[in-house]
Amino acid sequence: EDQVTQSPEALRLQEGESSSLNCSYTVSGLRGLFWYRQDPGKGPEFLFTLYSAGEEKEKERLKATLTKKESFLHITAPKPEDSATYLCAVQAGGANNLFFGTGTRLTVIP
Amino acid sequence: ETGVTQTPRHLVMGMTNKKSLKCEQHLGHNAMYWYKQSAKKPLELMFVYNFKEQTENNSVPSRFSPECPNSSHLFLHLHTLQPEDSALYLCASSQLTGGGVEQYFGPGTRLTVT
Predict the structure, then answer these.
(1) Which of A36, A45, A98 to probe the B interface (max B CBs under 10 A)?
(2) Fewest C-beta atoms under 10 Å: which of A5, A65, B81, B88?
(3) Record: contact B110-A100, CB cut-off 8 A
(4) How many CB pairs under 8 A join A and B?
C-alpha cells in the first residue's frame, strides 16, 4: 500500500536557525514527489516537483532533495514568514491523483 | 481572476439543507479534483475528472455529488450531510501529461455542518 510519512509533526525554529523536514515514502512506480506550503485557512501552494533520486531544486531559502526512499526540504536561515504547514505528496503508478502526508507545521520565532 | 477560485469561502449548513460548492480554474487545465481536508488527517481525494469525465470516486458517500459541465468548472452538490462532514473542501486542477504533474489548489471552502 502506498504510504507517505512526514516528520517531525511540528517544528519550532529561531529566526536564522536552519533545519530540514523529512518525507519518507513507500510507493510503486514513483512518477513525482511534490512539496506544498499551506498557510492557515488557505489552499496548498505548489513549491517543487522532484522526479528521480539525486534531483535537487531550490527556491529562495528552500531546497528540496530526493532519494529512493525519502525527500528532504531544507530551510536555510528561515524567517518568520516561512511559518506554515509544509505538505509532501507523491504521484505513482498510472493514477494522476496525489497521495499526501499529514504535513509538518513549521513555526519560525523572531 | 487567476489560478483556481472557489465559492463560497465559508458555508454553514444544517443536516437537512442542500447546497453546492463551486470551483473554477483559469489555467487551461484538463483535469480537476475535489479533496477533503480534516484536522490531523492528510488530504483525502474525493473525485477526479479528466476531460470532463469522472475517472475516480474514492468511496465517497452519495450525499456528495460532483458535476463537471466543462473543463473549467467543477461543482460539489451537498445534501443531508452529517456533522463529521465538516472540513475544508479543496478543489485542484492539473494538466494531464504522461509523467508526474503538479496540481494547483484553490483557497478552499470551510464547511460547517450543524
Answers:
(1) A98
(2) A5
(3) no
(4) 66
Q: C-alpha grid cell for residue B49?
A: 475528472
Peptide bond connecting B107 to the previous residue in cis, omega within 30 degrees of 0:
no
Lookup: cell for A90: 507523491
Establish whether the linkage from the previous residue to A8 is cis, with ω within 30° of 0. Answer: yes
3-state secondary structure of B83: helix
pLDDT digit string, tens, across residues B50-106: 877 777 777 899 999 999 999 899 999 999 999 999 999 999 999 987 666 899 999
Task: Residue B101: list chain A partners with CB under 8 A.
Answer: 32, 49, 91, 96
Residue window 19-58, chain B: list those with CB within 8 Å of chain A.
31, 33, 40-43, 45, 48, 50, 56
Q: Which amino acid is at B64?
A: F
Q: Tell me the pLDDT tens digit for each residue of A53-100.
A: 999 999 999 999 999 999 999 999 999 999 999 999 999 877 777 899
What DSSP designation does B8 have?
-
Please give the single-letter amino acid code of residue B90.
L
Closest CA–CA distance from residue A19 to any residue of chain B (Å): 23
Give the distance, in angstroms, between the CA of residue A83 and the centroid of all CA atoms in the same chain.
13
Radius of gyration of the CA atoms of chain A, in A: 13
